[in-house]
């Protein structure tokens, strides 16, 4: 009898997406993780011009050279990472980049260190490689930040990699420089890989972002244009990996997607070259929304760390599934914490990528519930 591969049976469909399918479409959505802003006008024009000028054919596997050149400049300027265009692969969003890293480097029986909580795609990619997830607790007393000493305790001779995500989805936590640097140094000492997902890098409040790739060559840096430039549907991301890693990644990319969206690549090029006012304005608005949602949750008696980045809060609640269910019935979509890791047993995730007015209204509804 025809049946699916055993590796796919271990993986469940996204609990976040399920919420969107079954919930009242008129509800206030505090579940979805994408900016509610439109793509900036200069980026729209660049993509329209690309269509008019017939940028509709296959691109080089690694992406257009001029886009990769701009990514190299960006990494040097913003992240203190010295690289070259041969190390850059433009991907179909950050999701493909994560999948590529897993498929290229994780083997059956490998142990992959993963902050708990973390984005639900990471353990799925690990399971598809028949590797083992080893959770590293992000503790409430550390404001849900991953600490280097907690990582060191989990390292064994089977440790192949660690996946970092700072700012973090689902908590909004931003790791401190000493922990980023310390984990990069552990990767050198114990010879494992650091996969650093920096998709929320630009969405940060009153703090500086640090990249582990500035401290070690054992790092693969992932980023993209979905969050900072509201280009979620355009699906353009990128990987920076040294020569010893790059060819293996390219093999997965070639046989998975061949190349990223040609029109989207031209939009990404303009995003890097053009003015950054839209990014700055969006971050200011997110900060106002963060302050509102944290204030209201605390007034309702919930324990909630104040996130320093991304656009999520991760409050503690007594019964997350009951909370999510009652909130949905009342007209507010939230997400239970458990899909993000065992630490989510007492948490829910709320996104403040919705308007200030809608967030205020949602908080009024939840207060009544």
Automatic annotation (TrEMBL):
It holds the Pfam family Aminotran_1_2. GO terms for biological process: amino acid metabolic process. It is an enzyme of class 2 (transferase). One of its GO terms (molecular function) is transaminase activity. Residues 26-364 form the Aminotransferase class I/classII large domain. Its EC number is 2.6.1.-. Keywords: Aminotransferase, Pyridoxal phosphate, Transferase. The lineage of its organism: Archaea, Methanobacteriati, Methanobacteriota, Methanomada group, Methanobacteria. Belongs to the class-I pyridoxal-phosphate-dependent aminotransferase family. Homodimer. This is Aminotransferase. It comes from Methanobrevibacter woesei. InterPro entries: Aminotransferase_I/II_large (IPR004839), AspAT/PAT-like (IPR050596), NHTrfase_class1_PyrdxlP-BS (IPR004838), PyrdxlP-dep_Trfase (IPR015424), PyrdxlP-dep_Trfase_major (IPR015421), PyrdxlP-dep_Trfase_small (IPR015422). Its cofactor is pyridoxal 5'-phosphate.
């Amino acid at each position: 009898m025809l049946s699916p591969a055993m590796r796919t049976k271990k993986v469940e469909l996204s609990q976040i997406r399920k919420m969107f399918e079954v919930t009242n479409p008129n509800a206030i959505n505090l579940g979805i993780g994408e900016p509610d802003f439109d793509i900036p006008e200069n980026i729209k024009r660049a993509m329209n011009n690309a269509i008019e000028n017939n940028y509709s054919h296959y691109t080089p596997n690694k992406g257009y050279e001029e886009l990769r050149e701009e990514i190299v400049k960006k990494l040097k300027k913003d992240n203190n990472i010295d690289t070259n265009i041969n190390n850059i692969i433009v991907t179909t969003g950050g999701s493909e980049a994560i999948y590529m890293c897993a498929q290229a480097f994780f083997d059956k029986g490998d142990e992959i260190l993963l902050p708990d909580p973390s984005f639900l795609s990471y353990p799925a990619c690990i399971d598809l490689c028949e590797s083992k997830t080893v959770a590293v607790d992000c503790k409430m007393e550390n404001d849900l930040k991953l600490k280097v000493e907690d990582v060191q305790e989990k390292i064994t001779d089977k440790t192949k990699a660690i996946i970092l995500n700072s700012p973090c989805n689902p908590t909004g936590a931003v790791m401190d420089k000493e922990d980023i640097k310390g984990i990069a140094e552990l990767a050198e000492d114990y010879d494992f890989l650091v996969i650093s997902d920096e998709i929320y890098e630009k969405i940060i409040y009153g703090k500086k972002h640090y990249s582990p790739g500035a401290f070690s060559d054992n790092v693969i840096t992932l980023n993209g244009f979905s969050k900072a430039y509201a280009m979620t549907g355009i699906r353009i991301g990128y990987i920076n990996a040294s020569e010893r890693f790059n060819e293996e990644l390219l093999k997965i990319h070639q046989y998975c997607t061949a190349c990223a969206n040609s029109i989207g690549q031209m939009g990404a090029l303009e995003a890097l070259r053009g003015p950054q006012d839209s990014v700055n304005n969006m971050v200011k608005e997110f900060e106002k929304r963060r302050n509102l949602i944290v204030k209201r949750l605390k007034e309702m008696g919930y324990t909630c760390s104040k996130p320093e980045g991304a656009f999520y809060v991760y409050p503690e609640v007594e019964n997350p599934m009951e909370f999510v269910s009652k909130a949905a019935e009342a007209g507010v979509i939230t997400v239970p914490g458990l899909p993000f890791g065992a630490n989510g047993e007492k948490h829910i995730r709320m996104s403040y990528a919705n308007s200030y007015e809608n967030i205020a209204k949602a908080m009024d509804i939840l207060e009544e519930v």
